[in-house]
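Reopening this ticket.

The earlier resolution said the output was attached, but the attachment link was broken on my side. Pasting everything inline this time so it's all in one place.
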Amino acid sequence: MASTAVVPEQGLSEPQRIINIFFAPSKTFDDLKRNASWWAPWLLGAIFTLAFVYTVDKKIGFEQSTLNQIALSKAQTEQLERLPADQRAQQIAMRTTVTKYFSYGFPVLVLLLDLIIAAVILGIFNLGFGAALPFKRVLAIVFYAGLPFLISTVLAIVSMQFIDPESFNVSNPVATNPAYFMDPYTSSKFLYGILSAFDIFVIWVIALMAIGISRNSKVKTGSAFAAIFAVYFLMKLIGAGLASMF
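Inline output:
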């Protein structure tokens, strides 16, 4: 009697997962059912982030970047102007040092932030939609969905080669949202914050998260997108309100 052997289905490699996110995201998110590893997109993101920080250091300078951020706040600017010259220099030097170390440690902060985002998404869909998703898989969805930010990071690195360092805004360095075309120093802080929410890459990432949730549960993609975008927009709304007040 002839016997037949069952050959297990071969999964995607990490490079295939990463490439498919941009061309066939459903394949990547389906493969997370087999293996919910997330280290590859995080590592890739950390490398690109450090490349961005290094470019800021060399092309803009952390002191100039710090001064640009201070100038965005009228209260901070006035506070520094009231200080004697030596104390003002000390404050700027201290803030520059903090900014530098914080920037080079940003990949660790991204890891912590994505853990929080994954926990929030887990709560929304497991409690609100009965999705029954495991945390590790949701975390992998968040990391893989965030890969389009690599493109915006590259665009930011390229743009720094051509801009005036005094006009650099580290919190909005690329023309991918309507707020980029506003004057951040004189425009309404509330309107600036709201318009910055409609960023091409953020919407792309949210769409990928929705696909990932849908492919790993019975939640429809449209419902997943609406739920995630609603939470994101609410946070931007609160942030814009606080910015306009303080």
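Reporter confirms the inline version is readable. Confidence is low (pLDDT under 50) at residues 1-8. The longest helix spans residues 221-245.
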